[in-house]
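A common beginner's mistake is to predict each chain separately and then try to dock the pieces by hand. The better habit, illustrated here, is to supply every component at once so that their relative placement is modeled jointly.
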Amino acid sequence: MGLVLENITKIFRSDGSDMRAVDHIALEIPSGALVTLLGPSGCGKTTTLRMIAGFELPTEGSVRLEGEDITFLPPNQRNISMVFQSYALFPHLSVEENVAFGLKIKHISRDTVRKETREMIDLVGLRGLEKRRPDQLSGGQQQRVALARSLVMKPKVLLFDEPLSNLDAKLRESMRLEIRRIQQETAITSVYVTHDQVEAMSISDLIVIMEKGKIMQKGSPFEVYIRPENAFVADFIGKVNFIEGVADKQDPESGIVVSSSLKKSFNCRNALVEKGRPARIVVRPEAFSLSNARNEELNSIAGTVLSYSFLGSHLEYIVKLPDGSVINALEYNLSERQLPRVGEEKRLFFSKENAWTIPG
Amino acid sequence: MFFKGHTLTDGGAPLRSNELFRSLKALTKEPFLLFLIIGIFFLLFLFSLYPLIKVAMVSFERTDGTLGLDVYQQTLSNSYLRQGFYNSLLVASLTAIFGVAIGYLFAYTLNRADIPLKRFFRFVALMPVVFPPFIGAMSLIMLFGFNGMITAKIFGIRDFPVYGLWGLMMAQMICFFPVAFITLDGVISTISPTLEDAAFNLGASRWQAFRKVILPVSIPGIASTLLVLFIESLADFGNPLILAGSRFPVLSVQAYLEITGMYNLRTGAALAVWLLLPSILAFLAQKYWVSRKRYITLTGKPTTSVIKSVNRPVKWCLFSLCLLISLFILLIYATIIWGSFTQAWGMSNRFTLENFKYVFDVGWESIKDTLVIAFTSTPLSALLGMTIAFLIVRKRFPGKGAMDFLSLLSFAVPGTVIGIGYIFAFNTPPFLLTGTLAILVLNFVFRYIPVGIQSGIALLNQVDPAIEEAAFTLGANNRTVFSRVTLPLIIPAFFSALVFSFVRAMTAISAAIFLVSAKWNLMTVQILSQTDSGRLSEACAYSVILITIILFFMMLLKLLLRNKISLSNQNYGVR
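With all components supplied together, the output reads:
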């Protein structure tokens, strides 16, 4: 195992009120993987990252790197580099000097420093800008310098603290791909903090979803989207509809949840909720179809169209169910070539494969 | 149930000793940092706190070796000493109120009225900062004293009451109102004009906008400045020594006279404690109460609103007031220069250069000493200030609050008290320093670090901490981060600390007067003693030379650092 967090907790104390920023986080990060800490602001993801970096001392627990306890080591003795949201370039040094900063401290021969600096500047595509100062670079270029400056140290772990949130949307997408490319080429164990779920989905080997200092779920992007373990994760990753009910049968392939308010039972995949316990069926908007099919495997609900938006490739419906709850559904392949009417009756279908169940 | 709030707080309390242990354990991995923290604590304790403890100890100790508070009763029952306490507080309060009023007048007028001569006003308001603090008193005597140029020569008045409350207050106001101006200028210039626009838009008149918006928003700044001026005035020594006389005793001078004149150490120590108490109270109020109540009104968006706070009559009214005060200040300083070229001020006003020859003949040693002391203490003070600022803003360690407090404490302690403390504390082995260069240098270093610390803290708070954190993750240790990253980024604060402590070291008097010796003497002490013996022209010549030296080195530093400063003025790294 590369990096291991053993039950780390961070409590910030200020004038009598304690704030538990991180609450017993246990996490193992395999060597060479890119793990994302994802969560809303204030969930403790940045504090966790800063404990790994050595900027915060955990109130409890320990941090291990390749078997060694590094909890009490200062940041400069950990061989862990960090890329900051604000880039944090040394404003008084040129691009070249910024990248060479860490190498020079190591007292490596000048030639090696020059060679490695140049290679790294090439890798991030900044050749020709070596002599510029940070304030003469664009945001994207600055973040490349920050990346090069960290990579050149060949750190055991590379940390990213929301590295793209100061960039505009387009640049964010291309930088995302580039960070992933370079990370895979260099195979450096990386921990990436973001609040942007799309960024997390596209870049990660493993996503750790956090809320109020605790881990809500960890898994591959696929797992956390398809098989969320709780309402928070289901809601945080992508758009979601919940159908409330009581579990009638616990079975990962063919479970049953009964909704008393809709007076219906639904077929679903229920791996988590025991019979008789409150349950929620998770159905993504794109899992609905508005067809007339009659199929044993399909669940159906009738509702009235409250409103809709036409978005070119698809229609986005808001449908009101008989019990007053509201469903968000998408319709692609608009075969009718005709828009619905508000107030119109529609029947929504979803397959049991697309109906995942979590505790209610 | 009753202890709900305490017992159920997430199990936080039992962890605390464990947390202390953990943070100490982390510190042991950074021996240099640990060493630095312990070293600074030791120095602060020895040179800032220990002398004060020593003052209290001396005041408690009876001649037979027992301890007691009887000397405080004695000082209270002595009506002359009681009067001194009362006078000190009275002058300090009045100086604070009037000084702030004038400072606010200047700050408001320069920021909110479209008047000519703004640069001139700003120059005049900042001028007293680089002058020895008691020059106002000298000049007032030359203008309004028994042989005063204005009172005696023009109006024929011989007994104009320049000695006493009003003269002293006037001298202190000239000396301290720049402090008020600088702070209040900072406050008012950051109040966005859009705030007034909003008030006008809601139907307020100009007066209402000032009364209901600008004034309330600047109240915390005013309160803080009042306390600072109160402390400065209490601590003032040079002006009362010249102006107060025996008719109007104040504590700082009384304490000095008890110790050096009558060799009455216990009474002197007790008076020092009486002087210390109100200063410390004002300091605590300033640091822990008033300074937390700042309003932040400046938003990131630049405002382009045209200033329209005052109408024409008010504008010219403010202008005239500022002009009047500025001219008066200029007159004060012009008098000193004029005086330095006269044969004997008040008796014979014939032009001469004799005074300067006299200063160079008799006072050459003191000029040299002053420079040696200033040049040794200034860089030490600035560097120590930056280091402490770095530790306080960027590092977390047990006792940080105590370090912050200790290092700023010397600002609140009147020079007289610290001077007395130094002679008590360092006249026996192992710290036998009396009469040496070291005692003066150490005194100056620790007295003037607060300014370095504060400008360091202010600038560091604007530098993104991630820049230093990045250096740490790249393998730099504390020393490397401080010297290669932090210091280059806060170099403007370093140089402003350098300039300030240089000026202060050159013009210091209140503590220094206790520490000078035949071997190491200061120009300021010479000026005071010349004034005391009525040789005003010679005192003026000394002052002119002193001011010339200060201005020369300030210019020189500015020239030498032009490139450096302009580089750092790009404000890079500043959020």
